[in-house]
Structures are given as C-alpha cells and as structure tokens.
User: Fold these one by one.
Assistant:
Number 1:
Amino acid sequence: MFAINRKDSGTPAAQGEPVTLTIDGAQVTVPAGTSLMRAAAAAGGAIPKLCATETLKAFGSCRVCLVEVEGQKGYPASCTTLVAPGMKVKTDSDKLRQLRKGVVELYVSDHPLNCKGCPADTHCELQSVAADLGVTTSPYGFDGASHQKAPCDASNPYFEFDPKLCIACSRCVRACDEVQGTFAITIEGRGFESRVVASQDQSFLESECVSCGACVESCPTAALSEKPLAILGRPDKAVTTTCAYCGVGCSFEAEVKGEQVVRMVPSRDGKANRGHACVKGRFAYGYATHEDRITTPMIRRKITDPWQKVSWDEAFKYAASEFRRIQATYGRQSVGGITSSRCTNEEAFLVQKLVRAALGTNNVDTCARVCHSPTGYGLKHTLGESAGTQTFDSVQKSDVIFVIGANPTDGHPVFASRMKRRLREGAKLIVADPRAIDLVRSPHVQADYHLPLKPGTNVALINSIAHVVVTEGLVNEAFVAERCEPGPFQKWRDFVSQPKNSPEAMAGITGVPAALVRGAARLYAKGGNGAIYYGLGVTEHSQGSTMVLGIANLAMATGNLGREGVGVNPLRGQNNVQGSCDMGSFPHELAGYRHISDTVTRDLFGQTWGVTLEPEPGLRIPNMFEAALDGSFKALYVQGEDMAQSDPNTQHVTAALSALECLIVQDIFLNETAKYAHVFFPGSSFLEKDGTFTNAERRISRVRKVMQPLAGLADWEATVGFARALGYEMTYAHPSEIMDEIARLTPTFTGVSYEKLDRLGSIQWPCNDAAPEGTPTMHIGEFVRGKGRFYVTEYVPTQERVTARFPLILTTGRVLTQYNVGAQTRRTANSQWYEEDVLEIHPQDAEDRGITTGEWVGVTSRAGETVLRAVVTERVQPGVVYTTFHFPDSGANVITTENSDWATNCPEYKVTAVQAVKVQRPSEWQRRYRKRNEEQLALAREATGSSTAN
Ligand code: SF4
Ligand code: SF4
Ligand code: SF4
Ligand code: FES
C-alpha cells in the first residue's frame, strides 16, 4: 500500500562549515547551524516531533523532541538546539521516553486518539508519535479538552479546519507567515485556550486567506485537511508531475486513487516551488474531469450546422481532406497552425512540425505572440538568448528587487512568496506599475519606491532611470568595458544622457515625480545585487520590444547580469510559454530560435523530416486573420488556444475565424474559438499525458500521466493521427522519442532526455556537452552573443491617445484565482472568489460619472463596447481603468485594439483609450454573444448529449 507519510528532517537545512558530533554513539558531520534534530535525521535516526517541520524555522513549543546532551543540564529541545563540534547527544533513554510520554498524554487529553475514519489516519504525526511511545489514552482524562465542542470551519471550498483535531502546534500559522507570506492566521489564547483564528476571527473563506494550502500541508494532524481526502479516502499512488497553470512550473505529487486525483501535494523536491503552491495548482484541478469536457471528435460542414460525433479516424480523414482540398484550391500557403503554450513541449514541437513538414508552409505561430514575443526579441538582441537569466532561488541573493509591469502575487504566486520572504529579510523593492499592486503594500512588505507610471510610458520611464545612472556616474564601467560592445554602449550613453531623457523632462509623460525616479535609479544601481522581474505590463505595448531592450540595457550598464541574485527575468504567464517558443513555434524560427532562412539549420531539419522546408517566414497570428479576411487564408489547426477570447479586438478575430473554410480546434472544452470550428479534436488535460513543460526559469520538468486520456488519445497522439491522414508519417511510440528528436536537432537541448529528467528532477536549458546538467544562471563570464549589445531606445508615444471622446486609459491584468481565459478555473470552485470580470475605476473618475461600486458601466473604445460592473478603488490612478479577461461574456477584448508592438506584433492590451458611462443593460455585442453562444451550445449538445457542453 502506498504510504503518504513523508520523510521530514524537522528543521531547514543549514549552509555552514562542517561540524562533527556524536549522536547515539555514531559520528555525524553536518553544516554548522544544523539543529540536533536534523543532524539525528542525517545520521538515520528520527527524534519524535510535533511542532517542527523542515519547511519552517524551529519553534520549540511542543517539547516532544527533548534529548540529552553530555555535560549539559536538563533536556534541551533538539529542534532549537544547534550542533557544536564534539557534542555527544543521546536521543533515546527511559527518562526521555517518560518525559515525551507525559507531553503526548497531555496532547491526547485534548485530541483523543479516535483515529478510525479520520482523514489523517495512518499519516497523522500525533498518531505516530503516540504509537511510538505507547500512548493510547490520557491519564488527564478528556474533561479539560477545550476544543472538543468547537465547530468545524468548512467554508473554504477545498479544505476544512476542525479545531477538535488541532494541537495548537502553530505550524499552520508559521507556514502562512514564513512560506506564503500572507499572515492570515494567528493563534489566540494560551494553553488549552489556544486556538487558530483566521484574520479577525472570520471564517477561512471570509478571511485574508488566499488558499495556498501551505497551512494544510504543514498540519501534523487532520485539523487542516483537504476535503477530497475525507471523501475519497487514502490514495493508492503518487505521481510526480508539473502544474499546468502558470509559468512558475510548480512540481506536485498527484496522489491518486484509481483514476481519481485525491489531492495535489506540492513537491518539496520541486526546484521551482520548494514545496509550496498556490490555490490554482494545489486545488483547482477539478476542471480536468468536469462534465463540460468533450471527449469525442466532432465534425460539421458549416459553423451553423449541428456537430456530428465521429471516430478519431473519421475526424482525421475529414480534417486532412479539407486541408488538402483547400491547399489544392487556394495554394499551399492558405493553411496554417497554432501551437499551444498550455500543451507540452513535445506537442508544440509536433504541431509546428506538422505545419512545416506535412503542410509545407511556415504559417505557424503560438499564443506567445500575444504575450512574450517582445521578450524573445529584446533579450536575443541584447544578450543573445531569448529567455530569463536566473533560477527562482536566485532571488534569495538579491538586494534590490525591481518589479516592472508584473503582479506576481496574482500571476506568479509561488514565486511572489519567495520574493516576499527575501523582502522580509531586508531586500529593497521598487515597483513600476500604474496600479498599486499588492506588493506595493502588504503585510510586512512595503515597496521602497512605487513608480505609478501612466500606461504606455514604460520606455520613457526606463530611459529616465538610465539617464540618472549615466549622468550620476552609476555605470559599472568595469563590467561594461569587459562584457559589452563599446560602440553601441557609447551611443546609448550619449542618447540617455540627453536632457530630454531626464526624470524631470519625462515626468510630464510618465506622470512619475522625478525625485522618485532618481531615488529608484540610485537604489537599483548602487544597492548591491539588483534583479529585474517583469511581466506583460512590459511586453504588451506598441513599444514592448523597445522596453525589453531598455531593461537589458539598464541591467548591463549596472553590471547586474551573469551571477546569482541579479538578472533580467520575464515572468511567463502560461505554464509552457517558454517551451512553446523554444520549440520553433514562431513562423520565422525553428527549435532553439534558429532562423528559418539559415540554410544549414533548415537543411538539418529538412533532412531529418524528409522534406524541403520553405526558407521564407510564414504568417504571424494577426497576419493570418488579415489573410483570412482578404480571402487568401482558409484553414487553421489550433491546438489549445482560444483566440476568440484571448486575442485583441474580438469582433475582428471572430470575423476572421468565420471566414475560414476549415477550422480545427483541439481543446478539452468547446471554447470560444471552437464555436467557429468545423472539426473538434477533443484534447487531453495535463493529467492524461506524458511530456515536459518549460517554466520561466528555462526549467524543463516532466509531466506524467496520472490517468488515461478521457478522449482515448493524448494531444500528441491526435497530432500524429492528423499528420498521418495528411500522408505524412510520424512514428513515435512515446513522447520521450519526440524529446530525443528535439535534442538531436537543437543545440541548447542536446543533453536533454527523459532518463536525465527522471534522474535530476528537472533541467534548465541550455543542456549540452558544455553544461551536461543544465545552466541555472545564464551569461556567466560572457553573454551568449559574446559581447552584450546596447540599443538606443527612443520613446515613441503609442498612437492610442486619450481624447475628449475616450478620456480614460484601460489596462488589463489577472487575478490570483482565475487563469487566463478562465476555461479551467471557471470550472472550479475558484469562482467563489472571483465570479465575473469587473472594472476598477478611481473614486474621482467614478464620481465625475456618477458611478458607484456594483453598478453597470458601459466601456467604449474605438474597437467596440462592453459592459462591466464597477469597483471604485484607489488601486488605480485617476484617468486609468482596469479589468481582467477571465470571462468570455464580459468581452474585455471587444474593446482592446489591434495596435501592436512594432517588432513582434504583440498586441497592445495594456493601453486602450476608453470612455466609461453608467448604463442599465448589457452591450449590443454582449447580447449578440449570448444569443450566438446559446445557439452553438445547442448544436454541440445535439452531438454530445451533454447538458452543458460549454
Ligand atoms: S491557505 Fe495559505 S493563505 Fe490561507 S491560511 Fe493557509 S497558509 Fe495562510
Ligand atoms: S491546525 Fe494543525 S498546524 Fe495549525 S495549530 Fe492546529 S494542529 Fe497545528
Ligand atoms: S504558482 Fe503557478 S505553477 Fe505554481 S501552483 Fe500556482 S499556478 Fe501552478
Ligand atoms: S518538535 Fe521540538 S519542541 Fe516541538
């Protein structure tokens, strides 16, 4: 039987010089700073414990872990006593057992050992300590038990708190403080009066708790436990896999009973998350078996026809015949494909291979087009590699953390917790964001500088910061002289030092007082290790690529690259954005970011695939839409992407999709794009397949199959089936063989294999002969491109200007509990925290318009109109409104425009000029959307028999 007890050394690892001591007669050598408890564990022993766990600092409250130390009086707690050279320690004796027994009997008086039926039965630490000491009942009786009548708090949808089972060890409180950094719970009272209290003595659901599960993970009993554990019972196996939500890439043990996930437990061995998780990965996996899943292939001739259920073979045959007919009629370039940043590396690689090799075109793109394509451009040009430079662990060595256009506590929560821990230890924080995001001020964290810039003025801001660095003599001259090209550096220096780039001159544009900019620039340049973390608030602009260049310029100028604690780190939105880009999903690049026009690379791929590849880059997503509307682009294969909701200017997108003659959508749900599709390939969730994801640290981690694919085929198998139907043979028995092919063709992946991933746990690319176990920190000694290259970053205002008609700027973002287009999280209890997209508006703007919180607001831009409920808040500055895009019928992207980044076409989601007025009913688009949505769901229901099928 699978055991869910974990090995736990009791206290965190220490880093000091080796110290040798004797424990129970055996010599052991451990780093100075190690506790006796951990040293005993290293020697193979196990001292009983209740309040200690290796993820938290020692607390010393339970007194179960007492030991004897030769020459010392009394019985010190082994969790709080540190090793010393020559120390002689005894962990077991009659006296120690007697003392421990007395303590445990006291605990048992408040927590009777009625273990049968308890969710923690067989993995409860109190139960196991009591059993070891032979404690079965308490001589103190149970009358003093003050928690026995306390009601259970089951308000949180995912876990419950049963005070009757609480032993007041405080592990949950410390986990919330130390690991998560939310400080949502406390212990009130003393002795038997001690009790765990959430926020202001509220229910967990009403409290500040963000449902990360760290308290549940740390609880030694079932006082805090996952609800499914009580319902489904003990799991029978655990499979290590990787979260399919954000780009942090947390590692989990999926604990499974039969084909059902009992719980997802964050892996302590996971190098991206170190045992922590957030509400999405930890709890919101129920979408994978939601009744809306479509599990049979479907086809239809017209998008107004009912869907027809078919076999996989029929679906492949129909799709292939349509693609070939269209190519024969309109030409080879009239078709294309979109790879998914939610699918595995292997699946993205296969889709682009199918498009290039089987369809003979480079018309392939990926959803990274609409998020981080400027990162690829900016970092490749300056540093030579299109990826973040550090590990997440690196932040522990940062002295100054500069967050630009990212909201880590919502978008990358597990990394945010790491960052906050470092900030609590004393690192300084600069936040550049139009909104007062949580990091600006949260428990025990306060930004030293918040630069509340106007949306669209990033480049002006980075230039003014650079101006201070250059004109105040803060350039790291030695680093630049040794590591960077002198000519471009001089040009950049001359450019940024011009008076027009000074903070004073730029303040009118950015809206940020010059003194703040000067202070932040000095802090970043002089404060020690400076690390920049940025997100879509940098990239999703008409000057997104310019801003990435500007960030890299700043990091090079201050010498903040090429070692731990520094770097330039794009926080990736979706789980495999990095990977889908690495895999050659862009129309101009083959795997490993090698240009399609390069003959040697093209021939290498062409020979391996048995085809001649086109040397010209294909169409990008926006160009595909344009071509569909002008009639030259007719068929598209979309894997795991919902452009009808996620891409800007929805009406333009849906018009383009409607113009296609064959749209294949491969997804787990009938998403918004599928409502315009002719062929539906039912997708597989991350629980149903093998593969790999690559996170924001370039870390490749295994995704392992936990259950059989509900539709019979994993996504990669469906792509293989489609390729074969097109007459192009693909012969892979397992995704590991796809990875082997990637490794053979891609210099940065040469050393990657499933065998090595299983052995090492995860690998950060580049992984090759030069770095056989991967590359945690990039650009050590020299940049990937050789010398770093500076670029002049002239600020060019966006064309999206506020006017009397559109006086406000709309900017967009995410919330913690929902994810991207919401297709997954909307189908979980996460919607209890956020059930609709809302419009944040500053009190002054709201008052001018007579708007109060909860009222309907019509938001109109040059592209369209939608209606959202208002939330009046000072989180946004006057003149700026903000919304999210998690719900299809809120139509946030009906209002965003087609303005895009000059270099990469990444849409300018973050800047849309709008007007907001009080209204009484949904917009015209919303009414049309709801009608059409109902029609499409009805057409699907006819085929699937599902009552919802949405
Ligand atoms: S779930 Fe997370 S945020 Fe909530 S109380 Fe537990 S540790 Fe704190
Ligand atoms: S809920 Fe669990 S972790 Fe928290 S004090 Fe009680 S027993 Fe300890
Ligand atoms: S932080 Fe990201 S990867 Fe980690 S559990 Fe949350 S959603 Fe998943
Ligand atoms: S485990 Fe050491 S005092 Fe509780």
Note: The pocket of iron/sulfur cluster (ligand 1) is lined by residues 175-176, 180, 182, 184-185, 209-215 (CB under 6 Å).
Number 2:
Amino acid sequence: MILDPVVADYLEAVYPASDPILAEMERQGAAEGVPIVQRDGGLTLALLARAAGARRVIECGTAIGVSTLHLARAVGEGGHVVSFDVDPDRQATARAYLERAGVADRVDLRLQPALDGLKDLDGVYDLAFLDAIKSEYAAYTELVLPLLRPGGLLIIDNSLMSGSVAAGKRVSGGWAQRDIDALRELNAALVARADLTTIVLPVADGMTVAVKS
Ligand SMILES: C[S@@+](CC[C@H](N)C(=O)[O-])C[C@H]1O[C@@H](n2cnc3c(N)ncnc32)[C@H](O)[C@@H]1O
C-alpha cells in the first residue's frame, strides 16, 4: 500500500506462500472485505514476537484471526494470546480457524470492546498489538504500557494509513481525517517518549514498534 509497486511486487514474490490455513483466511478476508494484516505485516508481527521471546501477548482487533494466528504460532505451546473484538461472527470464524490450526488452547478470544477489556487485564505481558479502532489507539497505549515488561513490545498497525499519515490528509484508502490526525499525533508522541524506543516501520500499511525501557 505504501511501497513503490516494483518493490511491493518483488516482496510479494520473494516471501514464501502462506500455508493452507492462512491462505484460506486471506482469501476469505479479501472476498468479504475484512481488513486483515497484510502478508508482510503478519511476517513482521511473527518475527518481532519471536525475537522478543514473547509468551504472553495482548491483541486489540481479532477480526477473523489472521494476526491472532501469527501471534499464537509465535508464542509457542504454553504461550497465551488474549484478543479482543466486538463482532461475534468474526470471532466465531477466528475461533474455528484457530482450532483447525491447533492453537486454540493458547488463545483467549474475548467479545468485548478493547477499552473495557484492557482495564480487566493484570499480570505481565511481552507484546501488545493494536489493530482495532484507530482513534482509540492512544487510549489502548496508555492501558497496555503498564502491563508490558521492560523490553516488551508495543506494535501498532496502519500507522501510515496508505501514506495518508505522512501527507496529513487522505491520499488513498478510506481513512477518516480524525484517524489520520490521531496517528500523526500518536507516532510523534511515541517517538518523543524517553521511556520507549520507537520506530515507524514502512512495512505493510505502516507498523509503529516501540520497545519499553
Ligand atoms: C483491522 S480489523 C483487525 C484485523 C486483525 N488484527 C488481523 O490483522 O487479522 C479491526 C477489528 O477491530 C474490531 N473492533 C471494532 N471495534 C472494536 C473495539 N471497540 N474493541 C475491539 N475490537 C474492535 C472490528 O470488529 C474488526 O474486526
């Protein structure tokens, strides 16, 4: 979405094909217009989770479970992913896929607005992935940061919004000005925080990654 098409085509060709379950999820997402993490975004998520040795993960925005599956595989057996969504049909679809993929026992799917659910969490987490309501990202951030261990990762999806965040206005995609403004503000705020080391990665639709000190 944000890359030169030549680079995007090259990357699409160079990465391995999705396994059969992920490929089926990606096809369903495309056919039904469900916004799911792009392939390079999913790979980035899995890579970061594995690099951080993440075992306990928070996700805001399950949809049909594509990013959840990447995270569930990365945490490994005995790991734990708690994931929030408010759409019961999507959650049921995600549950069925996660069962088929053999990772349902490490995923706690909660049918609850993330802002409510995050307030109920306690314990220590290794990684939080934000991909629900864009204008609520800053509030999710304030709730998840205290739950992350030092060295834990905060990962924010769509942080460049098809280039609109860089332009300061919608240049493509259906992004609302309110959401573009929210992401511009959040990226700047995270980069400026002394208790975080933050980068805005130009992968997928933009992924902002912050490491807690
Ligand atoms: C971009 S999709 C998530 C995609 C998913 N992370 C993936 O990459 O496969 C955003 C999801 O957030 C859900 N959502 C909307 N409002 C929400 C809320 N208040 N709390 C949690 N999830 C919400 C939507 O139902 C939708 O499924």
Note: The two ends are 31 Å apart (CA to CA).
